[in-house]
Amino acid sequence: MSEPDSPLYVQIADQLRRRVQKGQYAVGDRLPAEGQLAEQFSVNRHTLRQAVGLLRQEGTLRVERGKGTFVTAAPIRYAIGKRVRYNEALKAQGHSIRYELVRSLEVLADDTLSEALTVELNAAVALVERVSFVDGQPLSVSSGYFPLALFPDLLTAESLQQFEKMGSVSKWLRDRYSVDHIRLRTSVSARLVQPNDATLLALPLNQPILLAESVNVDQYGRVIEYGVTRFRGDRMEMVFENQ
C-alpha cells in the first residue's frame, strides 16, 4: 500500500490495484474509459495515465490501442527442462487447460523441417496445430511436426481422436506409439504476433509473443517432433532449468 505522502498517481494506482485484488475488476475485464476514471479520482488525464502506466509495468494492466485498458492475469511460469510436461506444469499452478484443434494435415519437409527432423527434403511430415486455453483464455498456438516415416497412421481419424481426448502430446505418443517424449533443445525469442495467430490468441497486431522452437526425441534418440509454439507474451514466463 502506498504512503499518504506518495505521489498522487501512485495512490491512484494503489486504489486500482486493490479493486483488482478484491475482484471488482476481474481478469480480462476492461476498465472504465480514461475520462471516467480521471473523473472518479478527481485528477487530470495525465495523472491517470501515470497510474495506469505503473500498473502496466508491474503486469496488472495491459493497454490495447483503440480498445481500452484490461486487467491481466499473473504470468504463468513454465519450466523448460528435459521432460516436455506443459499440462502438468500448468495444473500444478492451479490452472485449468483445454485445447482446440486448428488443423491437421500432411506437408512436405522444407529446409527447416528437413534439418530439424533429420529427414530428407520433401519427406512426408504430419502437422498438428492447436490452441491452448488456460482458465478459459487463449494462451498459445502450437504447431507440432512429426515424421510420418515413424508414425504412418498419425493423421488417421482414430489417432487424432485419441490425441484430442488425451490433450497431452507426451501421453499420446507414449500410449499409442510406446515412445518417450524428451526435450533435446529449445530456443525462445520475442517477436510481434502474426495476423493468423493474433486472431487465435485474441491479440492486437502490435502485441509481442514468445516464440519457442523445440526439437524432441524419444528414448532411442530419434527425433520425433519439431514444435513451434507461440505464447502470449503478457501471460507467459519461461524458466530454464539446469539439466
Helix content: 25-40%
Order of helices and strands: HHHEEEHEHEEHHEHEEE
Provide the spatial order of strands within the biggest beta sheet. Answer: 4-5-6-9-8-7
Distance between the termini: 40 Å
> What is the overall pLDDT average?
90
Q: Which quaternary structure do these chains form? A: single chain
Q: In terms of structural class, how would the helical and strand content be classed? A: alpha+beta
Number of domains: 2
Which CATH top level class of the largest domain fits?
Answer: Alpha Beta
CATH superfamily of the largest domain: Chorismate lyase-like
CATH architecture of the largest domain: 3-Layer(aba) Sandwich
What fraction of residues sit in β-strands? 25-35%
Tell me the number of strands: 10
Write down the CATH topology of the largest domain: Chorismate lyase
